[in-house]
Amino acid sequence: MSNLLDLLVAGLATGAIYALVAVGFTLLWQTSQTINFAQGEFVMLPAFLMLAVMHAGAPFWLAIILGILLSLLLLGLGFKLLLVDPMLRHGVLPLAIATMALAIGMKEAVKQFFSAEASPFPSIVPAGDVSILGRVISLQSLGVLALAIAVVIGLTLLLNRTSIGHQMQATAQNPTVARIIGVPVERMILLTFLINAFLVALASLLITPIYLAKFSSGEVLGQAAFIAAIVGGFNQVRGAIAGGLLIGVVDNLAAAYVSTQYRAAVPMVLLIVIILFRPQGLLGRPEERTV
Amino acid sequence: MSDAILDVQGLVGGYGKMTILNGTSFSVPAGSITTVIGPNGAGKSTVFKAIFGLLKLREGKVVFKGRDVTGLSQRELLNAGICYVPQGRNIFPELSVRDNIQLGAVVARDIADLPARIEAALDKFPVLRKKATQQASTLSGGEQKQLEVVRGLLLNPQLVLIDEPSIGLSPLMVQQTFNILKELRDRGVSILMIEQNARSALEISDYGIVLELGQTRLVDKADRVLNDPRIGQLFLGGAMTETAA
User: Fold this and answer.
1) Domains of chain B, first to last
2) Looking at the complex, does the CB of residue A165 fall below 8 Å from at least one CB of chain B?
């Protein structure tokens, strides 16, 4: 039998990464009605950007910095200006479909211009194990978990404790009124896209050493983040965090105790159950729409 | 009018191809409560949006304290001293009451005495102080209106545009809200209000403006507007122009 503690920690670690991705996903939805079906590919790409910088001869740390900067530029600013702004005018659905097209485009572009093969990716957390309470736990999992939790806490503090965070929430909750009281709504929306770009870049940096850099890796990640966001509550940051952690743990435990073949099905089952019995998600609030 | 704080001159504009404002003109005397009344579709709320830069005007000018402020951004208008409290619910439901109020000062450059101002505002409205840390969605309709007014006043505006403050409020809350407006006027703040509840609004007002079909039909002292026989007719569906002619 596997070590349950190690499984839990590993589950929480991947779950924390899902949470990062899911948080970005819900932020985009809240502030600009963008359902980003390319979110998984957004996690896939930064690792390749970093690999490209390293292939050019730069050290890993520089590749990380440049990779994050490029992500902010391409997946934050570029995504908003070139895809979201022009498409949102036509409605939420055309934009969602455009993001699906973007996902396919990104996948194929990486396959074409980089490689169809999986490439190894260095880890920022050193390999090895630590012993806690007599149990052996991988340092990698612990490090990923710690980093992801630190970022989530930082983001929560930003949203809830700072004026910028309040302005972002105001923009999400009531953009018309936010504008009337002088919140620079456009700038807040842009900031959301930049934060999402940062989150996916970080997630990419943390998860790629575990899953390898592959053009298709966004499919699984995007799906996990999407399920996490829905399970937790599509309109709540804390919901996305809870959903991400839950999916990570459930996924890992299912692989160990149910079946490796069916591991991907378990989050799906969870999703169906949630949609049937609690459509607003675990921590979400029901949304009303007038037609 | 030389003591006008706001001058609206020949506004023409609307939504898409629909023209709502057909050369609307009036001025708002400084230090007064001025109420805009008129039937549905007269363009009352649209005038407010136009003044506050939320509607693209095809023609016309908005002059505030002698300065042309047409088409300025909301941030610039707030800094100039105008505040706008629209109709309906204008709060951020999931932020705390205190955070909601604090957001009223996002454009302020001198943040130094902001905490003191917020405390002073909360002292004036004990209900809001009691619920300061709660989510704003837990406030009643009247309390939400109070919050909006308090938030709007953080920047010490000289002109408050307030649209239908009494809507959805109990008679007692309406009276309280009107009292707040009177108090503001007594402190020298000019108030331009839209009210469906024309009679009670005019009773506390200094001036009344009657709008119909996007044009100004009547500007006079509030009591004279209140007693004008044509007003009843206007609200009962008759057109004022016919009676006036």
Assistant:
1) 4-88+157-236 (3.40.50.300)
2) no
